[in-house]
Amino acid sequence: MPTESYNKVAKLYTNKFFNELTKKPFDCKILKAFAKKITPKQHIVDLGCGPGHITKYIYDHNIQITGLDVSEKMVEIARELNPEIDFITGDLNSLKFKPNSIDGFIAFYSLIHIDRKNIHTILKSCFNALKPSGKLLISLHKGKGDIYIEEFLGEKVSVKTTLYEELEMENMLCNIGFEIEFIKTREPLDFEFQAEKIYIQCKK
């Protein structure tokens, strides 16, 4: 989703989704397990953090985490709702982290808005930025091709959602050099985008 579309729906998105984890026990289980493998001194980055609800969930498990989003409005809201957490504006297509400097990345439903032709470059940037044994946790919508949306939350937007199959993403991650720790799926909940969900955790 382009920056202007994110900015346009930032408040509406926050109102609808900021508390969504209370209705997503499967997601919470995966996030909690991820947090348990991170020590308080390690540093995690939430890529495409939106209003910061995933960031806050990890932070509440005594983890040092930074939220990053391309939308200035989303970052502004995230800072207001979570003043104790560091949030920055940044583009996933041009990550600027130093090599071997980050202990883990989370990308929950943010890579779906990246052009398929660019996804390898972003995942490679994550790999390079991770410290040895650093972890990457991503979630995606399962399927093939792209879906185009011109209306979201009652607003006119320009949104392209890229769908992935497990094998496609597994092969890409392994070719980059990641070691897959698990791949899990679940059916969509009634309030979500109606596609099966994919969760992949891997390490450098």
Concise structural overview:
This protein has 204 residues and is of the alpha/beta class. It has helices spanning 3-17, 25-36, 53-59, 72-81, 116-129, 166-176; strands at residues 43-47, 64-69, 86-89, 102-108, 130-141, 146-152, 155-162, 179-186, 197-203. α4 (72-81) links the parallel β2 (64-69) and β3.
Describe the structure.
It is a single chain. Helix 1 runs parallel beside helix 4. By secondary structure, the chain is α/β, with parallel strands linked by helices. The mean pLDDT is 92. It is globular, with a radius of gyration of 16 Å. It has a seven-stranded mixed beta sheet with strand order 3-2-1-4-5-9-8, with helices on both faces. Strands 6-7 form a two-stranded antiparallel ribbon. It contains six helices and nine strands; from the N terminus they run H-H-E-H-E-H-E-E-H-E-E-E-H-E-E. Helix content is 34%, strand content 31%.
Task: List the defining traits of the structure above.
204 residues; alpha/beta; 7-stranded mixed beta sheet; two-stranded antiparallel ribbon; 9 strands; globular
Structural class: alpha/beta
What is the strand content?
Answer: 25-35%
Put simply, the count of helices is 6
* Rg of Cα set: 16 Å
In which order are the strands of the major sheet placed? 3-2-1-4-5-9-8
Number of strands: 9
- Please provide the ordered H/E string of secondary-structure elements: HHEHEHEEHEEEHEE
**Morphology:** globular
